TrEMBL record:
<keyword id="KW-0472">Membrane</keyword>
<feature type="transmembrane region" description="Helical">
    <location>
        <begin position="104"/>
        <end position="121"/>
    </location>
</feature>
<dbReference type="Pfam" id="PF06570">
    <property type="entry name" value="DUF1129"/>
</dbReference>
<keyword id="KW-1133">Transmembrane helix</keyword>
<protein>
    <recommendedName>
        <fullName>Integral membrane protein</fullName>
    </recommendedName>
</protein>
<feature type="transmembrane region" description="Helical">
    <location>
        <begin position="73"/>
        <end position="98"/>
    </location>
</feature>
<keyword id="KW-0812">Transmembrane</keyword>
<dbReference type="InterPro" id="IPR009214">
    <property type="entry name" value="DUF1129"/>
</dbReference>
<feature type="transmembrane region" description="Helical">
    <location>
        <begin position="32"/>
        <end position="53"/>
    </location>
</feature>
Length: 137
């Protein structure tokens, strides 16, 4: 689930960032370290949402183990703030030598390939996504 979320967030960042920068007058693209670390932390945030909220929607789960709403909200909020700090820190605090910026067209193609890989792996291995809630019966 974490790999599925990572591939999705990575492809989303890569495709959106590069497509916006292709048509922008003054592009400000993320470096590769920012995209990778931001995607990894974003995947952990999405998995945290699954772990603390969505997994209890399955009918075979013990509802007595479900954490209180405000505890779940606090954990998810803290994880989202951590995600924003990682994105900000890697974008503005890392020097360009450690966070190289790749050409936008390369990042766009790489993001599209990553998204295709995600859908292929989900289909082949029947991976559940941490990004969606289960069906309500």
């Amino acid at each position: 689930m974490i790999m599925d979320a990572f591939l999705f967030v990575f492809s989303l960042f890569a495709i959106l960032n590069s497509s916006v920068n292709l048509f922008s007058k003054n592009p400000s693209n993320y470096g590769i370290v920012t995209i990778v670390l931001g995607s990894a932390v974003g995947a952990l945030v999405f998995y945290g949402m699954y772990y603390f909220i969505y997994r209890f929607y399955y009918s075979d789960q013990d509802q007595s183990q479900k954490p209180p709403f405000f505890k779940s909200l606090l954990i998810i909020s803290a994880a989202t703030i951590l995600w924003a700090i990682v994105l900000y820190g890697t974008t503005f605090l890392l020097p360009a030598i450690l966070n190289p910026k790749l050409p936008n067209l390369f990042i766009l193609v790489f993001g599209g390939g990553t998204l295709a890989l995600r859908f292929y792996l989900k289909k082949k291995f029947n991976i559940r996504s941490a990004l969606t809630s289960p069906r309500q019966l």
